[in-house]
Write a structure and sequence with these properties.
The complex is a heterodimer of chains A (about 90) and B (about 425). With about 90 residues, chain A is an alpha+beta fold. Chain A is built from 3 helices and 6 strands; from the N terminus they run αββαββαββ. In chain A, about 20% of the residues lie in helices and about 15% in strands. Helix content of chain B is about 35%, strand content about 25%. The chains are: A alpha+beta (about 90), B alpha/beta (about 425). Chains A and B meet through α1, α2, α3 and β6 of A and α2, β11, α5, α6 and β15 of B.
Chain lengths: ~90, ~425
Protein backbone atom coordinates (compact mmCIF):
# COMPACT_ATOMS: atom_id res chain seq x y z
CA UNK A 1 0.00 0.00 0.00
CA UNK A 2 1.30 3.44 -0.85
CA UNK A 3 3.01 5.44 1.89
CA UNK A 4 1.25 8.67 1.02
CA UNK A 5 -2.07 7.04 1.74
CA UNK A 6 -1.32 6.99 5.44
CA UNK A 7 -4.09 4.55 6.17
CA UNK A 8 -2.74 3.94 9.66
CA UNK A 9 -3.18 7.60 10.56
CA UNK A 10 -6.70 7.53 9.17
CA UNK A 11 -7.57 4.46 11.24
CA UNK A 12 -5.97 6.19 14.20
CA UNK A 13 -8.82 8.72 14.14
CA UNK A 14 -11.29 6.00 15.10
CA UNK A 15 -12.10 4.80 18.59
CA UNK A 16 -11.01 1.18 19.06
CA UNK A 17 -11.35 -0.89 22.20
CA UNK A 18 -8.98 -3.81 22.44
CA UNK A 19 -10.41 -7.31 22.46
CA UNK A 20 -8.99 -10.17 24.51
CA UNK A 21 -8.69 -12.34 21.42
CA UNK A 22 -8.38 -11.99 17.63
CA UNK A 23 -11.81 -12.25 16.09
CA UNK A 24 -10.58 -13.15 12.61
CA UNK A 25 -8.07 -15.93 11.97
CA UNK A 26 -6.79 -17.69 8.88
CA UNK A 27 -7.83 -21.32 9.27
CA UNK A 28 -4.92 -23.68 9.88
CA UNK A 29 -3.50 -25.00 6.60
CA UNK A 30 -5.14 -22.20 4.60
CA UNK A 31 -2.24 -19.74 4.86
CA UNK A 32 -1.33 -20.25 1.22
CA UNK A 33 -4.85 -20.53 -0.17
CA UNK A 34 -5.15 -18.30 -3.26
CA UNK A 35 -8.53 -17.01 -2.06
CA UNK A 36 -6.75 -15.12 0.71
CA UNK A 37 -5.22 -12.77 -1.82
CA UNK A 38 -8.67 -11.32 -2.50
CA UNK A 39 -8.60 -9.80 0.97
CA UNK A 40 -5.63 -7.65 -0.02
CA UNK A 41 -7.79 -5.92 -2.63
CA UNK A 42 -11.03 -5.64 -0.69
CA UNK A 43 -10.09 -4.86 2.93
CA UNK A 44 -10.94 -1.19 3.59
CA UNK A 45 -8.46 -1.07 6.47
CA UNK A 46 -5.61 -2.58 4.44
CA UNK A 47 -5.06 -5.26 7.07
CA UNK A 48 -4.06 -7.91 4.55
CA UNK A 49 -0.83 -7.52 2.59
CA UNK A 50 1.47 -9.63 0.44
CA UNK A 51 4.97 -10.22 1.76
CA UNK A 52 8.06 -10.73 -0.37
CA UNK A 53 7.41 -14.46 -0.59
CA UNK A 54 4.00 -13.67 -2.05
CA UNK A 55 2.20 -14.89 1.06
CA UNK A 56 -0.64 -13.02 2.69
CA UNK A 57 0.11 -11.41 6.04
CA UNK A 58 -2.68 -10.21 8.27
CA UNK A 59 -3.03 -7.97 11.28
CA UNK A 60 -6.24 -7.36 13.22
CA UNK A 61 -5.44 -3.85 14.52
CA UNK A 62 -7.73 -1.34 12.88
CA UNK A 63 -10.39 -3.85 11.80
CA UNK A 64 -13.61 -2.04 10.90
CA UNK A 65 -15.68 -5.24 11.29
CA UNK A 66 -17.27 -4.81 7.88
CA UNK A 67 -17.05 -8.48 6.92
CA UNK A 68 -15.84 -7.87 3.37
CA UNK A 69 -12.98 -10.38 3.81
CA UNK A 70 -15.43 -13.02 5.03
CA UNK A 71 -17.55 -12.59 1.91
CA UNK A 72 -14.61 -12.36 -0.51
CA UNK A 73 -12.44 -15.19 0.88
CA UNK A 74 -15.18 -17.39 2.27
CA UNK A 75 -15.62 -19.27 5.52
CA UNK A 76 -13.46 -22.20 4.39
CA UNK A 77 -10.47 -19.90 4.55
CA UNK A 78 -11.30 -17.54 7.40
CA UNK A 79 -12.49 -18.20 10.92
CA UNK A 80 -14.60 -15.11 11.35
CA UNK A 81 -16.52 -13.88 14.39
CA UNK A 82 -17.41 -10.44 15.69
CA UNK A 83 -15.24 -9.12 18.53
CA UNK A 84 -16.56 -9.63 22.05
CA UNK A 85 -19.28 -7.28 23.29
CA UNK A 86 -17.95 -3.81 24.06
CA UNK A 87 -14.74 -4.41 22.07
CA UNK A 88 -13.50 -3.37 18.66
CA UNK A 89 -14.36 -0.25 16.72
CA UNK A 90 -16.91 2.13 18.28
CA UNK A 91 -18.13 4.56 15.66
CA UNK A 92 -18.80 8.07 16.93
CA UNK A 93 -20.40 9.23 13.67
CA UNK A 94 -21.26 6.13 11.63
CA UNK B 1 -38.95 -19.36 37.90
CA UNK B 2 -36.67 -18.63 34.98
CA UNK B 3 -37.05 -15.29 33.28
CA UNK B 4 -38.56 -15.54 29.85
CA UNK B 5 -39.00 -12.70 27.37
CA UNK B 6 -41.70 -12.39 24.77
CA UNK B 7 -38.99 -11.53 22.28
CA UNK B 8 -35.21 -11.23 22.19
CA UNK B 9 -33.83 -8.99 19.48
CA UNK B 10 -30.26 -9.49 18.29
CA UNK B 11 -28.76 -6.17 17.21
CA UNK B 12 -29.67 -2.59 18.01
CA UNK B 13 -29.62 -0.99 14.58
CA UNK B 14 -32.70 0.36 12.83
CA UNK B 15 -34.43 -2.99 12.28
CA UNK B 16 -33.81 -4.13 15.86
CA UNK B 17 -34.73 -0.80 17.42
CA UNK B 18 -37.81 -0.54 15.20
CA UNK B 19 -38.95 -3.97 16.34
CA UNK B 20 -38.17 -3.20 20.00
CA UNK B 21 -39.98 0.14 19.88
CA UNK B 22 -43.06 -1.40 18.26
CA UNK B 23 -43.20 -4.43 20.58
CA UNK B 24 -42.65 -2.37 23.70
CA UNK B 25 -45.34 0.11 22.61
CA UNK B 26 -47.79 -2.80 22.68
CA UNK B 27 -46.65 -3.81 26.15
CA UNK B 28 -44.62 -6.90 25.24
CA UNK B 29 -41.55 -7.83 27.24
CA UNK B 30 -38.68 -7.33 24.92
CA UNK B 31 -34.93 -7.59 25.38
CA UNK B 32 -32.56 -6.13 22.81
CA UNK B 33 -28.89 -7.15 22.81
CA UNK B 34 -26.38 -4.82 21.16
CA UNK B 35 -22.70 -5.76 20.89
CA UNK B 36 -21.41 -2.18 20.66
CA UNK B 37 -20.92 0.24 23.52
CA UNK B 38 -24.17 1.89 22.43
CA UNK B 39 -26.67 1.55 19.60
CA UNK B 40 -25.05 2.92 16.47
CA UNK B 41 -21.50 2.08 17.60
CA UNK B 42 -21.23 -0.61 14.91
CA UNK B 43 -23.49 0.95 12.30
CA UNK B 44 -22.47 2.83 9.20
CA UNK B 45 -24.63 4.53 6.61
CA UNK B 46 -23.68 6.33 3.45
CA UNK B 47 -25.75 9.01 4.81
CA UNK B 48 -29.36 9.49 3.82
CA UNK B 49 -32.74 8.24 5.03
CA UNK B 50 -36.08 8.56 3.21
CA UNK B 51 -38.90 9.07 5.69
CA UNK B 52 -42.11 8.80 3.62
CA UNK B 53 -42.32 4.99 3.45
CA UNK B 54 -42.07 4.61 7.23
CA UNK B 55 -43.59 7.85 8.48
CA UNK B 56 -46.86 6.33 9.65
CA UNK B 57 -45.24 3.29 11.30
CA UNK B 58 -43.49 5.55 13.80
CA UNK B 59 -45.73 8.63 13.98
CA UNK B 60 -44.22 10.04 17.18
CA UNK B 61 -40.63 9.68 16.15
CA UNK B 62 -39.92 12.25 13.50
CA UNK B 63 -40.51 15.58 15.17
CA UNK B 64 -37.49 15.34 17.44
CA UNK B 65 -35.35 12.93 15.46
CA UNK B 66 -31.70 14.03 15.37
CA UNK B 67 -31.26 14.16 11.61
CA UNK B 68 -28.62 16.27 9.97
CA UNK B 69 -29.98 18.28 7.02
CA UNK B 70 -33.06 17.81 4.83
CA UNK B 71 -32.01 17.08 1.28
CA UNK B 72 -33.08 19.95 -0.97
CA UNK B 73 -30.57 19.42 -3.78
CA UNK B 74 -29.76 16.24 -5.66
CA UNK B 75 -26.71 16.06 -7.86
CA UNK B 76 -25.31 13.35 -10.03
CA UNK B 77 -21.88 13.54 -11.58
CA UNK B 78 -20.68 11.34 -14.39
CA UNK B 79 -16.94 11.08 -14.18
CA UNK B 80 -14.65 10.28 -17.10
CA UNK B 81 -10.90 10.05 -16.66
CA UNK B 82 -10.18 13.71 -17.40
CA UNK B 83 -13.54 15.43 -17.22
CA UNK B 84 -16.94 15.21 -15.57
CA UNK B 85 -20.52 16.32 -16.10
CA UNK B 86 -22.82 17.26 -13.23
CA UNK B 87 -26.58 17.63 -13.17
CA UNK B 88 -28.15 19.41 -10.21
CA UNK B 89 -31.81 19.03 -9.40
CA UNK B 90 -33.36 21.49 -6.97
CA UNK B 91 -37.09 21.83 -6.60
CA UNK B 92 -39.63 23.54 -4.37
CA UNK B 93 -41.09 20.08 -3.69
CA UNK B 94 -37.84 19.09 -1.98
CA UNK B 95 -38.04 22.12 0.28
CA UNK B 96 -41.58 21.56 1.56
CA UNK B 97 -42.37 19.86 4.85
CA UNK B 98 -42.64 17.03 5.51
CA UNK B 99 -39.24 16.59 3.91
CA UNK B 100 -38.73 13.36 2.02
CA UNK B 101 -35.16 12.68 3.03
CA UNK B 102 -32.42 13.71 5.42
CA UNK B 103 -28.71 13.20 5.80
CA UNK B 104 -28.03 11.17 8.91
CA UNK B 105 -25.20 9.90 11.13
CA UNK B 106 -26.02 6.57 12.69
CA UNK B 107 -24.07 6.76 15.92
CA UNK B 108 -26.13 9.81 16.79
CA UNK B 109 -29.50 8.69 15.44
CA UNK B 110 -29.48 5.09 16.69
CA UNK B 111 -28.40 6.15 20.17
CA UNK B 112 -31.32 8.51 20.35
CA UNK B 113 -33.74 5.94 18.89
CA UNK B 114 -32.58 3.43 21.53
CA UNK B 115 -33.61 5.92 24.23
CA UNK B 116 -37.06 6.23 22.66
CA UNK B 117 -37.44 2.43 22.63
CA UNK B 118 -36.37 2.30 26.28
CA UNK B 119 -38.97 4.93 27.13
CA UNK B 120 -41.59 2.65 25.62
CA UNK B 121 -40.40 -0.10 27.96
CA UNK B 122 -37.89 -2.08 25.93
CA UNK B 123 -34.90 -3.46 27.82
CA UNK B 124 -31.67 -2.73 25.97
CA UNK B 125 -28.38 -4.30 27.02
CA UNK B 126 -25.25 -3.04 25.25
CA UNK B 127 -21.74 -4.57 25.04
CA UNK B 128 -23.51 -7.87 24.68
CA UNK B 129 -22.74 -10.16 21.76
CA UNK B 130 -24.95 -13.12 20.96
CA UNK B 131 -22.74 -16.20 20.51
CA UNK B 132 -25.32 -18.85 19.77
CA UNK B 133 -28.98 -19.77 19.73
CA UNK B 134 -30.87 -22.06 22.09
CA UNK B 135 -32.80 -24.80 20.33
CA UNK B 136 -35.64 -26.70 21.97
CA UNK B 137 -37.64 -29.37 20.16
CA UNK B 138 -36.43 -28.19 16.80
CA UNK B 139 -37.29 -24.55 17.36
CA UNK B 140 -35.32 -21.49 18.38
CA UNK B 141 -35.99 -20.74 22.04
CA UNK B 142 -33.52 -18.04 22.98
CA UNK B 143 -29.90 -16.93 22.76
CA UNK B 144 -26.59 -17.50 24.50
CA UNK B 145 -24.59 -14.39 25.33
CA UNK B 146 -21.39 -14.38 27.38
CA UNK B 147 -22.14 -17.94 28.53
CA UNK B 148 -25.58 -16.97 29.78
CA UNK B 149 -28.78 -18.53 28.44
CA UNK B 150 -31.65 -16.15 27.80
CA UNK B 151 -34.99 -17.56 26.73
CA UNK B 152 -37.80 -16.07 24.68
CA UNK B 153 -40.83 -17.11 22.67
CA UNK B 154 -39.21 -15.65 19.59
CA UNK B 155 -35.81 -14.33 18.49
CA UNK B 156 -35.60 -11.55 15.91
CA UNK B 157 -32.27 -11.54 14.05
CA UNK B 158 -31.40 -7.93 13.27
CA UNK B 159 -27.65 -8.42 13.42
CA UNK B 160 -26.81 -6.84 10.12
CA UNK B 161 -25.62 -7.80 6.69
CA UNK B 162 -23.59 -10.85 7.75
CA UNK B 163 -26.26 -12.06 10.22
CA UNK B 164 -24.38 -14.84 11.92
CA UNK B 165 -27.60 -15.38 13.89
CA UNK B 166 -29.69 -16.18 10.82
CA UNK B 167 -26.81 -18.30 9.56
CA UNK B 168 -26.74 -20.31 12.80
CA UNK B 169 -30.50 -20.76 12.52
CA UNK B 170 -30.00 -22.25 9.05
CA UNK B 171 -31.96 -19.46 7.35
CA UNK B 172 -29.06 -18.24 5.23
CA UNK B 173 -25.63 -19.26 4.06
CA UNK B 174 -22.52 -17.07 4.02
CA UNK B 175 -22.91 -14.48 1.28
CA UNK B 176 -21.91 -14.74 -2.33
CA UNK B 177 -19.57 -11.85 -3.33
CA UNK B 178 -21.76 -10.95 -6.32
CA UNK B 179 -24.63 -10.02 -4.01
CA UNK B 180 -22.67 -7.59 -1.86
CA UNK B 181 -20.85 -4.30 -2.14
CA UNK B 182 -18.35 -2.77 0.23
CA UNK B 183 -18.71 0.87 1.23
CA UNK B 184 -15.97 3.03 2.71
CA UNK B 185 -16.59 6.48 4.12
CA UNK B 186 -14.90 9.42 5.77
CA UNK B 187 -16.72 11.92 7.92
CA UNK B 188 -14.99 15.21 7.22
CA UNK B 189 -15.63 18.09 9.59
CA UNK B 190 -16.22 21.53 8.13
CA UNK B 191 -17.66 24.80 9.37
CA UNK B 192 -21.44 24.89 8.68
CA UNK B 193 -21.07 28.28 6.98
CA UNK B 194 -18.46 26.82 4.64
CA UNK B 195 -20.72 23.85 3.86
CA UNK B 196 -23.66 26.12 3.07
CA UNK B 197 -21.52 28.35 0.93
CA UNK B 198 -19.77 25.57 -0.95
CA UNK B 199 -22.93 23.65 -1.78
CA UNK B 200 -25.19 26.70 -2.21
CA UNK B 201 -27.52 25.72 0.61
CA UNK B 202 -30.09 27.83 2.40
CA UNK B 203 -30.56 27.41 6.16
CA UNK B 204 -30.99 23.75 7.17
CA UNK B 205 -30.82 22.55 3.59
CA UNK B 206 -28.58 19.72 2.55
CA UNK B 207 -27.20 18.32 -0.66
CA UNK B 208 -26.84 14.74 -1.80
CA UNK B 209 -24.38 13.90 -4.54
CA UNK B 210 -23.65 10.69 -6.42
CA UNK B 211 -20.63 10.07 -8.63
CA UNK B 212 -20.30 7.32 -11.19
CA UNK B 213 -17.78 6.18 -13.74
CA UNK B 214 -14.04 6.54 -13.36
CA UNK B 215 -14.34 6.82 -9.56
CA UNK B 216 -14.73 3.04 -9.35
CA UNK B 217 -12.32 2.35 -12.23
CA UNK B 218 -15.21 1.08 -14.29
CA UNK B 219 -16.39 -1.34 -11.61
CA UNK B 220 -20.00 -1.57 -10.46
CA UNK B 221 -20.49 1.06 -7.79
CA UNK B 222 -20.10 4.76 -7.25
CA UNK B 223 -19.19 7.60 -4.96
CA UNK B 224 -21.46 9.56 -2.67
CA UNK B 225 -21.40 12.79 -0.72
CA UNK B 226 -23.92 13.99 1.83
CA UNK B 227 -23.77 17.25 3.73
CA UNK B 228 -24.36 16.92 7.46
CA UNK B 229 -24.79 19.83 9.89
CA UNK B 230 -21.09 20.23 10.61
CA UNK B 231 -19.48 17.64 8.41
CA UNK B 232 -19.51 15.93 5.05
CA UNK B 233 -19.95 12.19 4.55
CA UNK B 234 -17.84 11.20 1.57
CA UNK B 235 -17.60 7.62 0.42
CA UNK B 236 -17.30 4.99 -2.23
CA UNK B 237 -19.27 1.79 -2.80
CA UNK B 238 -17.92 -1.03 -4.99
CA UNK B 239 -19.10 -4.55 -5.84
CA UNK B 240 -17.08 -7.04 -3.80
CA UNK B 241 -16.95 -9.51 -6.67
CA UNK B 242 -15.61 -6.98 -9.16
CA UNK B 243 -13.17 -5.58 -6.64
CA UNK B 244 -11.68 -8.94 -5.67
CA UNK B 245 -11.30 -9.91 -9.32
CA UNK B 246 -10.05 -6.57 -10.61
CA UNK B 247 -7.18 -7.06 -13.03
CA UNK B 248 -5.70 -3.64 -12.27
CA UNK B 249 -4.96 -4.95 -8.78
CA UNK B 250 -6.34 -1.79 -7.22
CA UNK B 251 -7.03 -1.90 -3.50
CA UNK B 252 -10.14 -0.18 -2.15
CA UNK B 253 -8.30 2.22 0.19
CA UNK B 254 -6.25 3.41 -2.79
CA UNK B 255 -9.33 3.78 -4.97
CA UNK B 256 -10.95 5.90 -2.26
CA UNK B 257 -7.88 8.11 -1.94
CA UNK B 258 -7.82 8.65 -5.70
CA UNK B 259 -11.49 9.58 -5.57
CA UNK B 260 -10.74 12.15 -2.86
CA UNK B 261 -7.90 13.53 -4.94
CA UNK B 262 -10.05 14.13 -8.02
CA UNK B 263 -10.06 17.92 -8.50
CA UNK B 264 -13.88 17.91 -8.42
CA UNK B 265 -13.87 16.28 -4.97
CA UNK B 266 -10.75 17.91 -3.54
CA UNK B 267 -12.40 21.32 -3.95
CA UNK B 268 -15.47 20.17 -2.00
CA UNK B 269 -13.59 18.89 1.05
CA UNK B 270 -10.81 21.46 1.10
CA UNK B 271 -9.94 22.63 4.61
CA UNK B 272 -11.95 19.83 6.18
CA UNK B 273 -10.66 17.57 8.93
CA UNK B 274 -11.35 13.87 8.70
CA UNK B 275 -12.89 12.76 11.97
CA UNK B 276 -13.66 9.12 11.26
CA UNK B 277 -13.01 6.41 8.68
CA UNK B 278 -15.56 3.63 8.44
CA UNK B 279 -16.54 0.71 6.23
CA UNK B 280 -19.56 -1.48 5.82
CA UNK B 281 -20.90 -4.23 3.61
CA UNK B 282 -24.15 -3.54 1.74
CA UNK B 283 -26.55 -6.19 0.46
CA UNK B 284 -27.15 -5.43 -3.22
CA UNK B 285 -28.37 -8.74 -4.58
CA UNK B 286 -31.99 -7.61 -4.56
CA UNK B 287 -35.00 -9.91 -4.45
CA UNK B 288 -33.18 -13.04 -5.56
CA UNK B 289 -30.62 -12.72 -2.77
CA UNK B 290 -33.08 -12.28 0.12
CA UNK B 291 -32.66 -14.83 2.89
CA UNK B 292 -35.42 -16.95 4.37
CA UNK B 293 -37.37 -14.56 6.55
CA UNK B 294 -38.68 -16.82 9.30
CA UNK B 295 -38.39 -20.20 10.97
CA UNK B 296 -39.77 -21.83 14.09
CA UNK B 297 -39.25 -19.23 16.83
CA UNK B 298 -37.23 -16.83 14.69
CA UNK B 299 -37.63 -13.88 12.31
CA UNK B 300 -35.01 -12.02 10.25
CA UNK B 301 -35.17 -8.26 9.54
CA UNK B 302 -33.14 -5.42 8.04
CA UNK B 303 -29.79 -5.96 6.34
CA UNK B 304 -29.74 -9.42 7.95
CA UNK B 305 -32.50 -10.42 5.54
CA UNK B 306 -30.90 -8.62 2.59
CA UNK B 307 -33.22 -5.61 2.68
CA UNK B 308 -31.17 -2.96 0.90
CA UNK B 309 -31.47 -1.89 -2.68
CA UNK B 310 -29.45 -0.02 -5.25
CA UNK B 311 -31.40 1.14 -8.28
CA UNK B 312 -28.83 3.64 -9.49
CA UNK B 313 -30.65 6.90 -8.71
CA UNK B 314 -31.36 5.86 -5.12
CA UNK B 315 -29.55 3.53 -2.76
CA UNK B 316 -31.77 2.59 0.14
CA UNK B 317 -31.61 0.38 3.18
CA UNK B 318 -32.65 2.18 6.32
CA UNK B 319 -36.35 2.45 5.45
CA UNK B 320 -36.45 -1.26 4.69
CA UNK B 321 -34.78 -1.93 8.04
CA UNK B 322 -37.28 0.25 9.91
CA UNK B 323 -40.23 -1.27 8.05
CA UNK B 324 -39.13 -4.90 8.34
CA UNK B 325 -38.45 -4.39 12.07
CA UNK B 326 -41.95 -2.95 12.40
CA UNK B 327 -43.61 -5.85 10.55
CA UNK B 328 -41.53 -8.43 12.44
CA UNK B 329 -42.91 -6.90 15.65
CA UNK B 330 -46.47 -6.96 14.29
CA UNK B 331 -46.03 -10.63 13.36
CA UNK B 332 -44.80 -11.41 16.89
CA UNK B 333 -47.81 -9.61 18.37
CA UNK B 334 -50.13 -11.79 16.25
CA UNK B 335 -48.21 -14.92 17.21
CA UNK B 336 -48.51 -14.03 20.88
CA UNK B 337 -52.28 -13.60 20.53
CA UNK B 338 -52.39 -17.12 19.09
CA UNK B 339 -49.88 -18.44 21.59
CA UNK B 340 -48.02 -20.08 18.72
CA UNK B 341 -44.58 -19.09 17.47
CA UNK B 342 -44.16 -21.77 14.83
CA UNK B 343 -42.90 -20.94 11.36
CA UNK B 344 -46.45 -21.40 10.11
CA UNK B 345 -47.80 -18.61 12.31
CA UNK B 346 -44.75 -16.40 11.88
CA UNK B 347 -45.09 -16.61 8.09
CA UNK B 348 -47.57 -13.77 8.48
CA UNK B 349 -44.43 -11.59 8.59
CA UNK B 350 -43.73 -12.38 4.95
CA UNK B 351 -47.38 -11.75 4.03
CA UNK B 352 -47.22 -8.34 5.68
CA UNK B 353 -44.01 -7.49 3.86
CA UNK B 354 -45.52 -8.61 0.57
CA UNK B 355 -48.44 -6.24 0.88
CA UNK B 356 -46.14 -3.38 1.95
CA UNK B 357 -43.71 -1.23 -0.03
CA UNK B 358 -40.85 -3.47 1.10
CA UNK B 359 -41.53 -6.58 -0.95
CA UNK B 360 -43.30 -4.61 -3.67
CA UNK B 361 -40.11 -2.63 -4.23
CA UNK B 362 -37.98 -5.75 -4.21
CA UNK B 363 -40.20 -7.49 -6.73
CA UNK B 364 -40.55 -4.40 -8.94
CA UNK B 365 -36.81 -3.92 -9.05
CA UNK B 366 -35.72 -7.51 -9.08
CA UNK B 367 -33.91 -7.05 -12.40
CA UNK B 368 -32.03 -3.95 -11.22
CA UNK B 369 -28.86 -5.64 -9.89
CA UNK B 370 -28.45 -7.59 -13.11
CA UNK B 371 -29.18 -4.62 -15.39
CA UNK B 372 -27.00 -2.13 -13.51
CA UNK B 373 -23.91 -4.31 -13.35
CA UNK B 374 -23.36 -3.56 -17.05
CA UNK B 375 -19.73 -2.35 -17.19
CA UNK B 376 -20.61 0.04 -20.02
CA UNK B 377 -22.39 2.30 -17.50
CA UNK B 378 -19.20 2.74 -15.53
CA UNK B 379 -16.73 3.10 -18.33
CA UNK B 380 -18.03 3.54 -21.87
CA UNK B 381 -20.85 6.03 -21.23
CA UNK B 382 -18.94 8.36 -18.91
CA UNK B 383 -16.10 8.64 -21.45
CA UNK B 384 -18.57 9.05 -24.32
CA UNK B 385 -20.56 11.85 -22.67
CA UNK B 386 -17.32 13.47 -21.56
CA UNK B 387 -15.92 13.43 -25.09
CA UNK B 388 -19.10 14.87 -26.59
CA UNK B 389 -19.11 17.69 -24.06
CA UNK B 390 -15.42 18.40 -24.70
CA UNK B 391 -16.00 18.72 -28.43
CA UNK B 392 -19.21 20.75 -28.10
CA UNK B 393 -17.56 23.27 -25.81
CA UNK B 394 -14.20 23.47 -27.58
CA UNK B 395 -13.51 26.57 -29.63
CA UNK B 396 -10.59 25.84 -31.93
CA UNK B 397 -8.27 28.36 -33.55
CA UNK B 398 -9.93 27.78 -36.89
CA UNK B 399 -13.64 27.48 -37.75
CA UNK B 400 -15.83 25.47 -35.39
CA UNK B 401 -17.48 22.33 -36.67
CA UNK B 402 -21.29 22.33 -36.84
CA UNK B 403 -22.89 20.92 -33.69
CA UNK B 404 -24.79 17.98 -35.14
CA UNK B 405 -21.80 16.40 -36.91
CA UNK B 406 -19.77 16.93 -33.71
CA UNK B 407 -22.16 14.71 -31.80
CA UNK B 408 -22.94 12.33 -34.62
CA UNK B 409 -19.29 11.28 -34.91
CA UNK B 410 -19.72 9.41 -31.64
CA UNK B 411 -23.08 7.93 -32.51
CA UNK B 412 -22.66 5.71 -35.54
CA UNK B 413 -24.92 2.79 -36.31
CA UNK B 414 -22.81 0.35 -34.28
CA UNK B 415 -22.83 2.54 -31.17
CA UNK B 416 -26.54 3.30 -31.43
CA UNK B 417 -27.32 -0.38 -31.84
CA UNK B 418 -25.36 -1.22 -28.69
CA UNK B 419 -27.10 1.61 -26.83
CA UNK B 420 -30.49 0.34 -27.90
CA UNK B 421 -29.48 -3.03 -26.44
CA UNK B 422 -28.56 -1.41 -23.12
CA UNK B 423 -31.78 0.58 -23.21
CA UNK B 424 -33.91 -2.53 -23.69
CA UNK B 425 -32.43 -3.92 -20.47
CA UNK B 426 -32.84 -0.65 -18.61
CA UNK B 427 -36.51 -0.67 -19.54
CA UNK B 428 -36.95 -3.64 -17.20
CA UNK B 429 -36.36 -1.45 -14.16
Amino acid sequence: MSETLNLKAKLGLNVFKEDKERHINIKPGMEKDPRLKRAVLVCPAGLYSLNEQGEVEFTIDGCLECGTCRIACGTEVLEWKYPNGGSGVQFRFG
Amino acid sequence: MEERFDAIIVGGGLAGLGAAYTLASEGLEVLLLERGDYSGAKNVTGGRIYVNPVRDMYPDLWKKAPFERFIAHEEVTVMAKERSITVRYSGEELKKEPYQSYSILRAKFDRWFAKQAERKGAMIVTKSKVDDLIRENGRIAGVITGGEELKADVVIACDGVLSLTAEKAGLRSPGNPKDYAVGVKEVIELDPAVIEDRFALADGEGAARLFMGEVTKGMFGGGFLYTNKESISLGLVVSIKELMENKQGIEIPVMFEEFKNRPEIAALIKGGQTAEYSAHVIPEGGYKALTRLYGDGILVAGDAAGFAMNIGVTVRGMEYALASGYYAAKAVIKAKEKGDFSAKTLSIYEDMLKSSFVMRDFINFKEAPHVLENPRFFNYYPELVGNIMRDLYAVPAGPKEKLYPTVKRYLGFKQLWAMAGDMRKVMKI
